[in-house]
Amino acid sequence: MSEKQKPEVRKSKVRSADKFRQLIVLSEAQSFFGWLVVLVALALLATMYLQQSSRIAILGRQVQAMQRELRDIKRENALLEADIAEAQKLERLEPEAVRLGFRRARPGDIEYMTISDYPTGKDITLLPTPTPMPPPLDSVGEALWYAVRSSINDLQRGESP
Amino acid sequence: MTSSQKMRTIILSLGLGFIMIIVLGRLVALQVRGLITTPERDVMVADYPDRGIIYDRNGAVLASNTQDYQIGASTNFVRHRADEIAGILAPILNTPQFTLRERMMSNNQFVVLAGRVPASTAETIRNIEELSSLQVEPMPRRIYPQNELMCHTLGFVNYGGDGLAGLEAYYDNELAGQANFRLINFSPLHPRPSVIARQGTDLVLTIDRSVQYLVEQHLQRALIEHGAESGTIIVMDPRTGALLAVANLPCFDPARFYEYTDTDLNQNPAIAQQFEPGSIMKVITMAAALDAGVVTPNSTYYDPGVIELGGHRIRNWDYSAPGTTDMTMLLARSLNVGAATLAYWMGPDIFYTYMQRFNFGRPLGVDVAAEGTGTVKIPGNSNWAESDLGTNSFGQGIATTPLQMVAATAALANEGRMMRPYLVQEIHHQGQVTRIEPTVISSPIQPQTAREVTAMAVVSVRQEVFGAQVEGYTVAGKTGTAEIPIPGFGYHPSDTIGAFIGWLPADDPQLIILVKLDRPRSSQWGSMTAAPVFAQLVQELVVLLDIPPDHIRHRAGQVAAQGQ
User: Fold this and answer.
1) What is the pLDDT of residue A161?
2) How does strand B440-442 pair with strand B202-205?
3) Across the interface, which of A57, A81, A110 has its CB nearest the CB of B543?
4) pLDDT for position A56
5) Quick one: pLDDT at residue B205?
6) Strands (E), B283-358
7) Is residue B215 within 8 Å of residue B231, measured between CB atoms?
8) Does B256 touch chain A (CB under 8 A)?
9) Interface check A38 vs B, CB under 8 A
10) Which residues, 6+ apart, have CB-to-CB distance to B7 below 8 Å?
11) What pTM does this model have?
12) What's the rounded Cα separation, in Å, for the pair B527 and B530?
C-alpha cells in the first residue's frame, strides 16, 4: 500500500514543480513585454533625470547671472545715491534757492498759532499683511512634484499649452 | 527558451539593472545636497564688504563709496602687442606711450598701467576690442558728498580702506565690515554664496546737516569779520547730549586729505584740543559754591579790586574795585576777584572735588577718535600751587577741551544732570537697528543749584552782554576772554581767545552753544567777538529747529494747562 502510494506522491510533487516553473519562467512574448516595460520605465526615468538636471543647471546659471546683475545694480545704485547726495549738498542748493527768490527765514517771519487740542502723538499706520512666499525649492524631487502639480493645476484651468 | 537565450536575458537584465542603479544613484545624489559636490569644483574666493555709509540725523549722506578702476596687464598676454596697446592707451590714460610700453615689456608677471582711473575711463577701455587683454579691476574709494562740511568730525579713510581720523577711525571696525576668503563649490545647481564675514555697518549721526552748514557759515563769517585765526562752534542738546553741530575752521576736504601737510588733521579741535577757557568757567565756580552751600544767590562779598592767593595777586579784568557785590553781579560783571574769593571760601578740597564732578581732566567718552582730556592740576600734584586755586576759578591755569566745557555747562541747563555728548544715534547692521540712548555721566550739582545759576546767567546776559541777546528768547550765558599760555614764558601779551557759552530758552533749555574764536584781531574781548556770533546764529537756529519764542511757548503752556 505504501509502496503504491510513493510514486503518486512523487508525481504530484513533479507536477507542482512544473506548474511553479511555468509560473516563474515567462514565455518569450511575456519576457519581451516585460523588458519593454522596464526599458520604457528606465527611459522615462533617464529622460526625467536629464531634463530636471538640465533645467536646474540652466536655472542655476540664471540665478548666478542675476546675482552678478544684482551686484552691479547695487553698485550702480550706490554711485547714483552718491551723485544725488552731491547734487543735494547745501553749498549748491542755497545759491540756487537765492536765485529763485527765496531767502532765509528769521524768527519774525514765522506766525505761530496756539491750538489747545492739537494732537502731539504720531498717527498709527497699519501695515498691509504681507503675502506668504513659497519656500525655495531644495531638491529635484520637490521640483518634479512642483512641476507635476503646476501642470495638473494648469490642465484643470485649461491653460496647458 | 534555449539556454543561450536565457544567458542573454540574464546578461541584459544585469546590464539594465546596473544602469538603473546608476540612474537611481544620481537621482538620490541630486536630492541629497552635498553628494554632488566634488573637490575639483572648489575654488578659493575672496569677498570684500562695502564700507558703511554715514548719514546725518535726517538721512542726508555724509560719507559714501564710489569705484575707481585699476588698469593692469599680465605681461605674457600683452608683451607681443605692447606697441599697439601702448599707442591706443596713451591718450586715454594721458600717459606717454613709451612709459606704458616699457611697463608692458617688464619682466614682472603683472604690471599696473594706471593706479586709479575714473569709471568713464575704465568704460572707454572696456569698449575697445584691442584692449580686451587688459585687466580692469574696481577699487573702492571713500567720498564725502558734502565736501568740507564737518571734516574734523567725519575724519577720513586711506586708500587701503582704514579709517584714520574722526568717526571713520572710531567706528572703523563697524564701518569696514570684515572681508573673508573661503573655498566654495562652483556648481551651476546652487547660487554663488557670499563669503563676507561681516557687512559694513551704516551710521546715523545726531548731527543735523543743515545746522552744521549754518554753523560753519557763521563761523566762517566770524573768522573774516574778527580776523580770528581759527574757531570752534559746538551746538548740543543739553537734555540728551546729542551733538547737533561740531564745527572747526579752517577745515579740509576729507577726500583729499593727502594733499594737506598739517599733521593735526586727525585731531578734532573741538574734542581733542585743550585751551584755557577763561571766564566762561565762572558759571562752574559759582555752581560749585552754591551747591556746596558756601554762598547763596543773595550772598555778598567785598571786592577791593585785588586779592592775593599763594603770593599771586589777582585783579579784575577792568581793574575795577566794585566793593560790596552780590553773586549775580559777580557773574554779570565777570569779576575775577569774586570768583577767586568763592574758590578761597570753598577751599581746594571742595573746589577740586567739583572740578572732578564736572569731569574736567578726564575724557568724556565721546565717540570720536583722539579725545582730549584737558589738564587740571590738583593739590598734591608737584606743579600745583595755592595761587592755582584762584586762577582756576576764572578759567586760567586750567585747560579743558571745548566739548568738556559744553558738557559741564550743559549740566546747568539740564537740572544738574551732565549728559555724555555723543555723535552716533543709530547703528544699522544687516537690517538690525541699534539705537544709542543718552547717558548721564554724573549729577555734579542739585537741580535747584542749576536753576539758580541759570537765573544768574540770564541776568548776566541781560545786563552786560547786549551782543548775545536774541529778541523773543531768554538767553542764559557767560562770556570769556582767555589769555593764551606760551609754554615756559607765561602768557601771550596781547592774543586772547574770545568765547561765549549760552543756553536757551532759559526756562526750558533745548540748545547749548559754545562759540570760540582764537586770536581775534577786531577786539580781544569775547563779549565783542564771540557773543554777537552766538546771537546771529541763534536767530537762524531757532527757525531751523522749530523753537518758538518765549511768549508763544508760555501761551501754549497756559492753553495746555487750561485744557487739562
Assistant:
1) 35
2) unpaired
3) A110
4) 82
5) 97
6) 300-303, 306-309, 312-315, 323-326
7) no
8) no
9) yes
10) none
11) 0.79
12) 6
Size of interface A-B (CB pairs under 8 A): 121
Looking at the complex, does the CB of residue B550 fall below 8 Å from at least one CB of chain A? no
Give the angle subtended at the CA of A53 by the CAs of A50 and A59, to the nearest 5°.
135
CA atoms within 13 A on the CB side of B115: 3
Q: If DSSP codes are grouped into helix, strand and coil, which group holds residue B351?
A: helix
* CA distance linking residue B505 with residue B556, whole number of Å: 15
Residue B395 has pLDDT above 50, yes or no: yes
Minimal CA separation from A5 to chain B, in Å? 35
Angstroms from B123 CA to nearest CA on chain A: 13
What is the distance between the terminal CA atoms of chain B, rounded to a whole angstrom? 108
Residues of chain A contacting B147 with CB distance shorter than 8 Å: 89, 91
The predicted structure's pLDDT at residue A156: 57
Other CB atoms within 10 A of residue B478 CB: 34
CA dihedral A8, A14, A19, A25 (to 10 degrees): -170
Is a pLDDT exceeding 80 seen at residue A125?
no
Name all contacts of A152-159 with Cβ < 8 Å and 24+ positions apart: none
3-state secondary structure of B181: strand
Q: Which residue has the higher pLDDT, B286 or B184?
A: B286
Q: Which three cell numbers stand for residue B396?
A: 586760567
pLDDT, position A127: 44
Rounded average pLDDT over B73-87: 88
C-alpha dihedral, B211 to B216 to B218 to B222, nearest 10°:
160
What is the pLDDT at residue A5?
56
Mean pLDDT of A118-135: 50
Min CA distance, B142 vs chain A (Å)? 10
pLDDT in tens, A45-94: 888 888 887 888 888 888 878 888 888 888 788 888 888 888 988 989 99
